[in-house]
Amino acid sequence: MEWLVIIVTVVVLWVSSFFKLLHESLSASQVAVLTDGGVFCKRNVLLVIAHPDDESMFFTPTINYLSSRGCNLHILCMSTGNADGMGNVRKEELYLASVMLKVPQKQVKILDHPDLQDGFGKTWNSKLLSKIIKEEIANCDIDLVITFDNYGVSGHCNHCDVHQGVRELLQDTSHRAVEAWELVSSSLVSLPLVSTNILRKYSGPVDIWLSILSAKFHLRGVVHCLLNEHPRRSLAAMAQHKSQWVWFRKLFVCFSSYTYVNCLKKIN
Fold first, then answer.
1. How much is the average pLDDT of 11-18?
2. What distances in angstroms separate CA 235 from CA 123, 166, 249, one per listed residue?
3. Which H/E stretch holds residue 181?
4. Residue 23: beta bridge partners?
5. What is the pLDDT of residues 162-198, one digit of tens each?
6. Which of 60, 158, 164, 188 is close enough to 234 for a disulfide, judged by CB 3.0 to 4.6 Å?
7. CB atoms within 10 A of CB 181
8. Cβ 260 vs Cβ 227: under 8 Å
9. How far apart are CA 227 and CA 189, in angstroms?
């Protein structure tokens, strides 16, 4: 009997979560991260990632939100993800995924810098990253940057380095007018007395309720939750990364909270 109650509760939570996502897609609500004086405006946005597939695994709620509201989105990928010698393949896969995510291929830039190669234990220089991001901001007239938080979402050192590169950029007074927002790791957005462990990270759409409550309860005006209005698009985008589309990543995309909600926090 207890197991039946648990199963029914989980099913109800999943169904209600999907209805919430459907409501968001129909209502097209706006949040302060993309407004100016209370009036919605189209932004030139730069998403800075470390490897091909980061955009599909972690940032699709943000990308879908931006594209559905006419923002001009650019993606800057700092490496080809060549740790296993498949850099050229993964580079093409990112271009294919960008099509699924409604990002023009001409607005996707993938680097293959000798000092920015994919791999655990390979430290990327924050000043070099800052210089590259600064150039992209100037070339594309960017006014808003989005990237990883200091934990790098998954803890990957390259993700963390990208975050530090953006922070290095913000120390430059000439770029104070550029806003920068970080994707907060679910374990860092918590409610008092609520343990945020691996169960929450892989709770799928159910985590949208905890994320919304966390932002309102704890960090009002600092963290904004963007719900994924097109979760199927996330699966379609990640499926383009065929070299990475193994069984455990299929499960990750289906059950990861990042497929359904992104919490963005402004980097000060």
1. 49
2. 31, 28, 10
3. strand 179-183
4. none
5. 999 999 999 875 656 789 999 988 655 544 433 345 6
6. 60
7. 23
8. yes
9. 15
Backbone angles phi, psi at 240, to 5 degrees: -70, -20
Task: Note the pLDDT tens digit of each residue in 52-78.
Answer: 999 999 999 999 999 888 899 999 999
What is the tens place of the pLDDT at every residue in 67-125? 888 899 999 999 999 988 999 999 999 999 999 999 999 999 999 999 999 988 889 99
Q: Give the total residue count for the chain.
A: 268
In angstroms, rounded to a whole number, what is the distance separating the alpha carbons of residues 12 and 18?
A: 10
| Strands of the sheet with 179-183, listed across from one edge | 108-110, 72-77, 44-49, 144-148, 179-183, 261-266, 223-227
Which pTM was predicted?
0.85
Q: Rounded CA gap, 223 and 254, in Å?
A: 24
| Cβ 187 vs Cβ 149: under 8 Å | no
What token pair was written down for 170? Answer: 């913000």
Yes or no: say if 64 and 233 are a contact pair by the CB < 8 Å rule: yes
Give buried/exposed letters for 108-142 (b at 16+ CB in 10 A, else e): bebeeeeebbbeeeeebebebbbebbbebbeebeb
pLDDT greater than 80 at residue 11: no
Whole-number Å distance between alpha carbons of 147 and 159: 9
Single-letter amino acid code for the residue at 102: K
The residue with tokens 């008092």 is 192
Antiparallel, parallel or unpaired: β 179-183 and 39-40: unpaired
Half-sphere exposure at residue 84, Cβ-oriented, CA atoms within 13 angstroms: 8
Could you give the CA distance from residue 104 to residue 2 in angstroms, rounded to a whole number? 50
* CB-based contact 17:61 (threshold 8 Å): no
What's the distance, Cα to Cα, between the start and end of the chain in Å?
50
Residue with tokens 């271009």, as numbered in its chain: 95
Report pLDDT digits (tens) over 248-258.
999 989 888 89
